[in-house]
Amino acid sequence: MATGNGIRGGRGFLTEEEKQNKPQITGVLLKRIFRFMLPYRLKLLMVFMAIVVSSILGLLPAVLTGKIIDEGLIGKDLDMLILLIAASVGVLLASNLIGVLESYLNVSMAQHITFDMRNRMYAHLQKMSHLFFTTSRQGDIITRMTSDISGVESVISGTLTNVLRNVAILITSVIIMYDKNWQLATIGMIIVPLFAIPTKRVGRTRWMLALQSQQKNDEINQILHETLSVSGQMLSKLFTNEHMEYDKYKNTSGEMTRLRIKENMAGRWFRMAMSTYSGIGPMLIYLAGGLLMINYGKTTLSVGDITMMAALLTRMYQPVNSLLNIQVDLIRSLAMFTRIFEYFDIPADIQDRRNALIPGNPTGSLEFDHVYFCYNEGQPILKNISFKIPVGSSVALVGASGAGKSTLINLIPRLYDVTGGSIRLDGTDIRDLNLGFLRGSIGVVTQDTYLFNGAIKENLLYAKADATDDELVRVCREANIHDFIISLPDGYDTLVGNRGVKLSGGEKQRVSIARVILKDPKLIILDEATSALDSISESLIQEAIEQLLHQRTSIVIAHRLSTIMAADEILVLQSGEIVERGVHRKLLTKNGVYHKLYETQFRRALEEHDARMQLQSA
C-alpha cells in the first residue's frame, strides 16, 4: 500500500503522526467503503475464487516435488518421473494463467473504483463555494484528488487482495502440512512467527533511514522549486546570492547522499536477515524430520514428505510476515478513506434550490436590499447595503482597501451567499434562480486576469464553446486585441503559458475582456485596475471597456477618475457600509470620505496619467 510519502520498505511501521491520528473503525465507515465496491461485487467474487484456486494450485508443486523424489528418483520409476514432471509443468502453467486473470480482474476493479471516486470528488469540489477554496489549502485539495484517491487503488489491488491471498495460502498450507505430519506441522507453526518478528525489527532501522532520506529529498525539491523558478532565479541574481543557494543545495544533497548510502546498506542487511531466517526454517524441518525417521523410526515419513514440508514452510513465511503487519496496513487504509470521506461530507453551501427559476430573457437590473455578509459570525464584512442599478445603468464602487468592494461584487454571482437581506436580479432573489442561469447572465472581468495554459482561441471559447471564427475576430476587435493576435506567428493558436505568463498584463486583460464580450452577458462586473499598465495598454483597455459596458448594466470597482465620473451613481464604501452616494461633483462638495479619496488617490492618479501622456507625446 502507498504510504503517501514515497518511502519504500516502511510499510510495517507507523509514524508518530499516524499513531496519534488513528481512525476509528466503525460499521458506518466500513459500509461506506464497501459501498464503492458494491457495483463490482461480481469481479470481487471472481478475484476471491481465483485466489483460492491459485492457492490450491500453489500447493501442488511442493506435493509433486515430494512425489518426484520418493516415487520417481528413489523409486527409480522413469515413467512416473516424467509424468510427475509434466504434471508440475502443467500446474505451473495453470497457476500462472490464473494469476494473470486475477491480476486483470484486480486491476480493473481497482481502476474503476478509483475512477468513480475521482469523478465524484471532482464533481463535489466543483460545487464548493468560493469560501471553501479561499480558506482551504490548495495542496490539501490536490492531495485528496491525487495521492489519496490513487492510494485507494493500492488498498484494493494490494492490501485487500494480499490479505485474502495470504490467508488462503496459510490455510491451505496448514491443512496439507497437518494432513501429512502433525509434529513437523506444529514445529512449522511455532518457528515461522519467531523468525518473522526479528525480520520486522531489522526492517525498522531501514525504514527510519528511508524516512530521513525522504525528508532531505523534500528539502532538495523545495530548494529547486524556489531557486529555479522564474521569480526565484531572478531574485537570487539580483541579490547576487547564487553561491549561497548553491552551497545550501550542495550541503543538503550531501546529507541525502550519506543517508541513501546508509539506507542501501541497511537494505543489504535487511535482505540478508530475511534470507538467513527463511533458510533456517527449512533446515529445522529437515533436522526434525531426520530425528523422527532415524531415531524414532517414523517409517511413514519419507524423504519426499520432509522436502514437501520444508517447501510449504518456506511458502508460509511471506504470508505470515505480511499478516503481522496487517494492523499497520489497515490503519493507513482506513485513514486514507477517512480523509476522502471528510471531503465528501463537506456540504455544498451554495447550490440550487428545489425548482430553481430559469427566466426567459434577463434584462440585467440589479438591487441590493439591506444586505449583510460575514465570513465568521459576529464579524460583519458588509452591513446594511442597499442600492439599485436600473437596466443599462452603471454604478462605481470606491473606497479604501478592505472596505468590502470585492466581497460585495462576489455576492452577485453567488460565490458567497448573503447572511442577511437579499440581492435581486430583474426583481427575483438570486438564491431562487438557477445557478447556471444566474452566472450565465453575468460577465466578470477581474483585476487578476486568469488564462488557462492553452491557446488564445481555447481561452476565448471558454465563454462560448460553439463560437465561430468570425465571432472570435469580432469580439477581439472590440477588445482591441485582434491586431496583436494576428501579429503573432501562430495567431489565435498561440499558447499563452501557465496563467497567461507569455502575455503582458494589458494583453491578458484585453483577452479577458474579449472573452466576456463573447459571453454577451446582461450584467457586467468589472474590477477596472490599470495602475500597473503603460499608457498605451491603458488606453487600449479603456476603449475595450467602453465596448464591453455599452448598453449593459454594470457595477465597477473603479480605480480611474474617468470611470468614476462616467458612472450613473458612485457608492463610497467604508468598513463595509455605504457612507456616501451620488455623482462626482456632488460628492466632492460634501468634503467627506469621497473628497479625501479624491485628494489622496484619484487626483494623484490623474496627474500621473497626464504626466505619462505628456512624456509619450514628447
Question: Short description, anyone?
Answer:
The protein has 618 residues and is of the alpha/beta class. It contains 21 helices and ten strands. Strands 6-7-8-3-9-10 form a six-stranded mixed sheet, sandwiched between helices. Strands 2-1-4-5 form a four-stranded antiparallel sheet, with helices on one face.
Tell me what the structure shows.
The chain is α/β, with parallel strands linked by helices. The protein folds into four domains: 188 residues, Up-down Bundle (ABC transporter transmembrane region fold), CATH 1.20.1560; 103 residues; 154 residues, P-loop containing nucleotide triphosphate hydrolases (Rossmann fold, 3-Layer(aba) Sandwich); 78 residues, P-loop containing nucleotide triphosphate hydrolases (Rossmann fold), CATH 3.40.50. 65% of the residues lie in helices and 10% in strands. The chain has a six-stranded mixed β-sheet, with helices on both faces. The protein has a four-stranded antiparallel β-sheet with strand order 2-1-4-5, with helices on one face. A hairpin with a 2-residue loop joins strand 9 and strand 10. The protein is elongated, with a radius of gyration of 36 Å. It starts with 15 loop residues before the first helix and ends with a helix. The N terminus is likely disordered.
